[in-house]
Amino acid sequence: MIDTHGHVMGPGYPLGSRFTISAEEILASMEQYQISQIWLSHCSAIALDDTKYNRELYENYVKNYPAQLVGFAALDVFRGADHCRDEIRQCVEGYGFKGIKIHSWIQGFAIHHPIMYEVMETAERYHLPVLFHDGTPPYADTSQIAGLAERYPRVPVILGHAGLYDSYRTAIGASQELDNIYLCLVGNTIGSIREILSKVKREKILFGSDYCFGQDAAMARTLIQDRLDGLMEAAGGTDIEGILYGNACNLLNNN
After folding, report:
1. Which pTM value belongs to this model?
2. Sequence-separated (6 or more) residues with CB below 8 Å from residue 251
3. Quick one: which of 44, 88, 125, 172 has the fewest CB in 10 Å?
């Protein structure tokens, strides 16, 4: 199984938090649920200092376990286009990261800010998927991200919550319309997952847990079980092997 939407925690996020999670704790969770690989971004890189915490993600996690722990670079677009290009280059060429994570809702910027065009062009140059938090207007509306995906058809765009509660039908429509959009099932209701499974090509659906986001180590593990239970209930015994593993493999291997 591959978890395509995970995080690591460090001091400072959420505000005032002192909680950290070790690579060994993540690997223990993976072993418990037979997860072979998890795609990780650093929460503090999203909320605080992207350069510092992307480096920490590499040094403390990805460097020692590159096959199991796959890095996704978080970016602070407020530091400008040159910074974003340099940070992506460092994360890919220096750290071996395989994707980019954008969380415009927490960071509070518009998806169609011109700097995001630079980010997408750099992602295209390096053949990187871009994982977006979505489903929470005004800064992370699913339709806004779909519009960006349409502008950059060669960049794989992952809707990290498949529209969440209110926008999952927008996510369904976007995935039907655009070949480069993938839906990651994180935080959706069983009913919305059933509808996604019935209307979206199975090869465009990914499994994710939001592992560790805002949680401690014990709570992080319960997120995995919760997401699995929802997916299996919604699938009703139909084949989900591609969702749990094959689709994620193909997405990284083809880019």
Report:
1. 0.96
2. 129, 156, 182, 206
3. 125
Per-residue pLDDT tens for 28-60?
999 999 999 999 999 889 888 999 999 999 999
Chain-centroid distance of CA 154 in Å reads 18
Give alpha helix (H) positions in the chain. Answer: 23-32, 43-47, 50-57, 81-89, 104-107, 114-126, 142-151, 168-177, 190-199, 217-235, 241, 247-253
Give the distance, in angstroms, between the CA of residue 121 and the centroid of all CA atoms in the same chain. Answer: 19
Per-residue three-class SS string for 101-143: EECHHHHCCCCCCHHHHHHHHHHHHHCCCEEECCCECCCECHH
Measured in Å, how far apart are the chain's first and last C-alpha atoms? 20
Task: Show Cβ contacts of residue 127 under 8 Å, excluding neighbours closer than 6 positions.
Answer: 255
Task: Retrieve residue 243's tokens.
Answer: 């969702």
What does the pLDDT look like over 65-107, one tens digit per residue? 999 999 999 999 999 999 999 999 999 999 999 999 999 999 9
Mean pLDDT of 222-239: 93
Least Cα distance to 88 among 10, 79, 66 occurs for 79
Q: For 159, phi and psi rounded to 5 degrees?
A: -80, 105
Q: Residue 12: pLDDT above 80?
A: no
CB 61 within 8 A of CB 71: yes
Residue with tokens 């650093």: 42
**Number of neighbours of residue 32 by Cβ within 10 angstroms:** 11
Q: Which CATH code, of 2.40.50.100, 3.40.50.2000, 3.20.20.140, 3.40.50.300, is assigned to 2-253?
A: 3.20.20.140
The domain locations on the chain are 2-253
